[in-house]
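ok so for the tutorial part 2 we go from a plain amino acid sequence to predicted structure tokens. step 1 is just haveing the sequence, like this:
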Amino acid sequence: RIFVLGIGFFTLCFLMTSLGGQFSAKRLGDSPFTIRTEVMGALESRGVLRKMSDMLELLMKRMDILARLENSSDLHKADDGRFLLDRFQPASGLMERIQAIAQNVSDIAIKVDQILRNSLMNGKMMDSRRDQCEVPRDPKYPDCAGKVEWMRARWTSDPCYAFFGVDGTECSFLIYLSEVEWFCPPLPWRNQTAALPSPAPLPRAQAAFRSDLTHLLELVGTGKESLIFMKKRIRHLGQQWLRAARRLEQKLKGRRRDQKHILIHIGFLTEESGDVFSPRVLKGGPLGEMVQWADILAALFLLGHSLRVTVSLKELQSNLGVPPGRGNCPLTIPLPFDLIYTDYHGLQQMKQHMGLSFKKYSCRVRVIDTFGTEPAYNHEEYATLRGYRTNWGYWNLQPTQFMTMFPHTPDNSFMGFVSEELNRTEKQFIKSNKVSNMAVVYGKEASIWKGKEKFLAILNKYMEIHGTVYYETQRPPEVPAFVKNHGLLPQHEFQQLLRKAKLFIGFGFPYEGPAPLEAIANGCVFLQARFNPPHSSLNHEFFRGKPTSREVSSQHPYAEAFIGKPHVWTVDYNNSEEFEAAIKAIMSTQVDPYLPYEYTCEGMLERIHAYVQHQVGHFIVHRELPDGAGGDPEKPGETCRRRGLVCEPTFFKLLNTKDAFLQLSIACDSTEAEMNHLYPAVAEGARECYLQKEPLLFSCAGFNSKYRRLCPCRDYREGQVALCRDCL
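step 2 — the prediction. this is what the tokens look like for a chain of 728 residues:
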């Protein structure tokens, strides 16, 4: 009896366990490609149910026989009548329970059989549908048939298609192309979620200025010399950043600012891009890019935005939601970031791994681009047709999505960096401790010094020359013996050297780095070479392949144009007399430490705040078109600058009309619209007017003596050329 009771209990437990998963098999929204597997499992379970039912019936019969046998023998023992009654009443109850269980199992088996028959029929219908899918002919989806044809031939070329359920059948192609991508219409037999009104978006969290940089240092991470350098810079400038943040907070007077979720992917530091910078940090390699990235991180963090920092491809894929495979499929989730700051290397990585999502979300990207990308190089079709295609251009982004180190052209956004700002006491101390005959040469690599012996000899007649050239102990650098070389210095020691020196001299390279501004901020005069002819992609190897036709007239055009004398002297180094005269004049010139506002911590915070909050459609919204729009055969940027204004490409749309020509008293015998980065313009010597056909080609850059271009100009904040007076 104990054995029978145990068997019954075990059977009941096994029954409950077996059925537990079978009645939760099919969920709403499951892929039709799992039906066949579930049906097969259910058929096996139906057999188990029947065996259980048969087993319980057999147990009940055997127990009944056993009970009758024992009853017939024990009835002869009259003395034990009361005992027998007590003894067999439980057995009788157990039989009733087993009989009830058997009946329930039998009923369940019948119901399961009915359910499974229906499932089999539905499965056959699904299989039939899968086998009978036809490519829809819908004029709203003209690319559907071509995409299905491509999928037939190439769906195994990337595992991401199988990840999304593609199995080689026509229906799986159509499901993918309608539900994951958007080239085909939804299939009518698919479970379509009822169209519900979208819930009202939750109110955005408000950005609050931060007062501690500790968490940012954790976000930057470790493991690379470049990251260590960036963290040291953030710490070194920490107090200046915090003071600047407090001043801007007071200036904005509690204005509401939406907090943005921002991904910062520094592509040039990834192993996949070669990470050529990290090994060169300790050897005098270029640090300008890392200086800029460190300052971007500090500014965005202090403004109160939510940041995620990545320096590897694996981290990028994880944060974007890239499906497994080779990058041909869209992201698995909606992009969780409002903005992505990256560089050209990161941009290429995103394009390779985001599939169609790259085009969908490209408007959220901001590209840190040292030298800038002009519209003629950015527009893929135009660049290909007109010979402007390079390895770095043709992205078809809004030109203001490219963010530069210096304000090369208003076509791009000026991001910049910061230099250390001195207080009044520090400035006075520097002025009183300057060594009037001390010069520091700009250039930490020995190659920069080669061929400069003539200049050095002239300079040595008047000044003590110091260098900061990297060298290994066993191989000192090849610099003249009269040069006092300090080797590669930490940043704070380099700053101390600049605070003593009278002159900071450049020999033509590197171009447009942060060091000249740091020298000027520490009270040095910067002497640089004038290039004649100007350097550009047409005549100089360094600029060849860069997406710009900009002509560089000196080693540091910003210092020449926006600062100038007495802080900056630009002379012809090929003219020894002019060079020597400049050195003599500089030695007798007194200058105060000077730093343009736009390169202070507050200036950069102000600028990035305006970009993050107000760049709508990738440009700052200006309130009005100032006076000054006009025609000139020169470059619009130079034309506006002569009038104390700056070219504003977003205003081109206001000039790109026939009425604009009439208002400017330009008579047009004919007016045509074409793709040309110089338009709108009028042909010189004729009365032929040209309008711009492609808005992406509106450009403040470019010049051709054949045309007189229309120049849209705007005002700007004092010391902040990137922003109009009312744009903060």
